[in-house]
Amino acid sequence: MHLASESITPRSIAIVGAGQAGLLLGCALLDKGYAVTMVTNRSAEDIWNGKVMSSQFIFDPALQIERDLGLDQWEKDCPYTEGIGFSIPAPDGSGTQALHWHARLHAPGQSVDQRVKMPGWMAEFVRRGGDLRFEDVGVAELETLTAAHELVLLAGGKGDIVNLLGRDDSRSPVRQPMRQLALTYVTGMKRHDYYECVNFNLIPGVGEYFVFPALTTHGASSTQACDIMVFEGVPGGPMDCWGDARSPEQHLETSLNILKTFAPWEYERSRDCQLTDANGTLAGRITPMVRNAVLTLPSGRKVFGMGDAVLVNDPITGQGSNNATKGAKHYYDAILARGAGAFDEAWMRQTFDALYNGYAEKVVRWTNSLLFPPPDYIVKLLATAQHAPALASRIANGFNDPRDYADYWFDAADAERLMQREMEAVAA
Ligand SMILES: Cc1cc2nc3c(=O)[nH]c(=O)nc-3n(C[C@H](O)[C@H](O)[C@H](O)COP(=O)(O)OP(=O)(O)OC[C@H]3O[C@@H](n4cnc5c(N)ncnc54)[C@H](O)[C@@H]3O)c2cc1C
């Protein structure tokens, strides 16, 4: 493998957007001797003092990438989440769980508030010798960057600029937001009597509620443990109600009212919660989309998209930051493997297609499937898991690498075969 440091002058790479994807790739390339310029439109202070942006839960395989690249500086402070819990309320409105199981992840996951992580990684990027600049990048700035660098990556997340890439219609079957999203960052939640889980509550016709521990900001410079409530309301339904919440306090009140009505077991442990801070709330919608990986500028020069800029999923499966991490690692390997070769359009397309066909397509398919009412065989599968711990474990651990769902999630006969096998194992 050729390293940049073997050349006389290091290869120069520019990345637009200092988020999960851009900073991870930038820091990794600096360690291999590349000259990396990062251009982003928000300062570390703005991010730390701004609103929460995500629930950013990261499963172990992506955490391991961060560890391998020396980007795990919050691991010892951030609570570990060791499993996945799953509940469906009883349809009779009794406020009980018709279905509940929990299963351990093979290794725990973590969520470090991006308000903590991105400022920390920006400092790390500069410490490793990166050139960090603040600018709102548009077409003119992309032209300047592509004229001066051998490769320009667009990792602008949900910034308007990523729309220049254009939707890849063939890979984007969902064309509108399927959930009204809301986040509520809280302290004071009571622990339940099993290990820490991402507790996923599926409320038919209403939406989903999931909740897990995390590490967030505390004042100007320290951190604290918290819990993140994530609401995914079906548009027009009773969980699509955030427009009336005019203040952070009303947002918390709305959150608790939803729990009281639809998931009273969650309400019981949340009733005394407080917001972490006045910026610990968010409401919005996302249109899931796969974009074209390559942007051709008016000059003809090319820009290569990465992270959410090319793969934006509904957060229902908590895969966005995981995808961004795995995608950044994939691009990193491809850049190193390219040696002194040109980062031309063919290389860009080949690099993205390998990521998409080898991994991301399965994540997109599974995530999109959860945005629609589940077919009967999926309900049966989830119910069977309550009596078959190995099945519960398999479903839970699919979050680590959703390619596993391809074996049984999308076809009733495949799911039946798996259920039968697992129930036979239980009976044996
Ligand atoms: C409500 C919600 C909950 C989520 N929960 C999870 C979860 O639990 N687990 C999970 O894995 N994922 C989750 N995600 C998704 C996850 O947050 C994203 O997938 C991830 O942050 C994408 O990383 P990125 O680097 O591509 O973009 P980002 O992290 O968004 O970074 C983009 C960067 O580009 C900068 N930028 C934008 N425009 C410009 C411009 N014109 N010029 C310069 N800079 C620019 C931005 O300031 C930012 O720094 C969630 C998302 C939402 C909305």
Describe the structure.
- The protein is globular.
- It is an alpha/beta fold.
- The strands form three sheets. Strands 3, 4, 5, 8, 9, 10, 11, 12 and 13 form a nine-stranded mixed β-sheet that branches. The protein has a six-stranded mixed β-sheet with strand order 6-2-1-7-16-15, with helices on both faces. Strands 14-17 form a two-stranded antiparallel ribbon.
- It is 36% helix and 24% strand.
- It folds into three domains: 209 residues, FAD/NAD(P)-binding domain (3-Layer(bba) Sandwich), CATH 3.50.50; 139 residues, D-Amino Acid Oxidase, Chain A, domain 2 (2-Layer Sandwich), CATH 3.30.9; 52 residues, no CATH class.
- Strand 1, helix 1 and strand 2 form a beta-alpha-beta unit.
- Flavin-adenine dinucleotide binds next to helix 1, strand 2, strand 3, strand 8 and helix 8.
Write the layout of secondary structure elements.
Layout: E1 12-16, H1 20-31, E2 35-40, H2 44-49, E3 57-58, H3 60-68, E4 81-89, E5 97-111, H4 114-127, E6 131-134, H5 139-148, E7 151-154, E8 180-187, E9 197-203, E10 207-218, E11 222-233, H6 248-262, H7 264-270, E12 274-275, E13 281-285, E14 289-290, E15 294-296, E16 302-305, E17 311-312, H8 320-338, H9 345-369, H10 376-385, H11 389-397, H12 412-427
Parallel strand pairs: 1-2, 1-7, 2-6, 4-9, 7-16
Antiparallel strand pairs: 3-5, 4-5, 8-11, 8-12, 8-13, 9-10, 10-11, 14-17, 15-16
Helix pairs in contact: 1-4, 1-8, 3-8, 6-7, 8-9, 10-12
The structure holds flavin-adenine dinucleotide.
Flavin-adenine dinucleotide binds next to α1, β2, β3, β8 and α8.
